[in-house]
Design brief:
Two copies of one chain form a homodimer.
Chain A (H helix, E strand, L loop, with lengths): L10 H16 L6 H8 L13 H25 L4 H18 L1 H7 L9 H23 L8 H20 L5 H15 L6
Chain A binds a DNA duplex through helix 2.
DNA sequence: CGCTCAACTAGACATTGACTATTTTATAGA
DNA sequence: TCTATAAAATAGTCAATGTCTAGTTGAGCG
């Protein structure tokens, strides 16, 4: 294993890591396969062994994003005992993720999503079912009714997504995003928001 | 004025119209300045007289989007007398716009927004103040309190944006989007959602 | 009638994504 | 241990794109 083995051995993962970084610092449009290869030190054709397309790499990024966001939300929710606190922590995890990975979130929820691979759909489903679990816990906690859970889950997801979009676009500051999540949860719990 | 005058005379507008169409049918990534020029029948350098950059054209598209969405919402809100109905119509206008212009909405709220021109910020502000007006009308209608309006406006905007993202991404059907807007409004008005 | 300047053309260039043929190397099986 | 095989990477090519520059056209104004 010299300093530059022919087989990189880990190229797929390194490509994704480097792409995630580029996404965070330069945006999607400026993300170039050739530049990634250059930075990593492989030939410009090397990425093709792992991603047939530029789109395939972006899909893989989105997939990792869904899984990372889901696990961040779960960790947030699990970090609190009291339900309202738990819900709040999950929501804040969403916004935190959006702040740290704004362009990635755009990619995950891009309207131009023709032919998403099954693995991407599965990852998205993982996120959605995580949120669903968090809401379901509210039934056991006695703050939500079973019958309304499905629609509340969708509404909560959409609300967090919208807040994240606003924060990611700089329309509201991160602190304002947390505030909005608080307000939303208060509304969901039927409490006055001020 | 022959069939092909040297000066197009209307190129800027035609470019934007054609770009809007391309956005709707092919997505942002596939939108090419040269292809637009080809379709319109001008040289590949012609667009540069009106848009210094590809990004400048996209910014102009987003600007038109903000104004169009704002006026659609206002028209929707004004089409009803009863406040809850008015609010609902405004929300539905948002979702309708998102369904018809998913990629454009992405563009309008893209996270990668470095150095947005003043006119774009102004257009975005027009949308936001339109939504603010719609919420403010709820105070006069006696369903909202003045003190909570600012935060409710933000929350309502974020919710509609989130719902639109879900609809645009195909995560929920358009009809489901309307349902979500209904649910959100019910929640805002303090009514049970089922 | 001629000036001027914005609008357009035409040509050039570097960069990119994608494709192909070829080379290297890890590994599994005899 | 040797060898077949296929995965992983290289290098070269191609069309397309965004951007830049120099030159051309013509509409409107004094």
């Amino acid at each position: 294993m010299s300093q530059r083995p022919f087989h990189h051995g880990n190229l797929r993962t390194v490509l994704l890591d480097q792409a995630e970084l580029a996404l965070r610092t330069k945006g999607v449009e400026e993300l170039s396969l050739r530049e990634l290869a250059r930075e990593i030190g492989v030939s410009h054709g090397a990425p093709r062994s792992h991603f047939i397309d530029r789109k395939a790499l972006l899909d893989a990024l989105a997939e990792r994003g869904f899984l990372a966001l889901a696990s961040a939300m779960r960790a947030g929710a699990d970090s609190r005992i009291e339900y309202a606190e738990s819900l709040r922590a999950a929501g804040q995890a969403y916004v935190d993720f959006a702040v740290a990975n704004a362009a990635l979130l755009d990619l995950m929820f891009a309207a131009t999503m023709d032919r998403p691979p099954a693995s991407l759909l599965a990852a998205a489903e993982t996120l959605f079912s995580t949120i669903s679990d968090v809401m379901q816990a509210g039934v056991e906690a006695g703050v939500f009714r079973e019958a309304e859970i499905e629609r509340l889950t969708l509404l909560m997801s959409a609300t967090m997504q919208g807040v994240s979009t606003f924060v990611g676009a700089g329309r509201v500051l991160p602190a304002g995003g947390d505030q909005l999540i608080d307000d939303a949860i208060a509304l969901f719990l039927g409490r006055p928001i001020e």
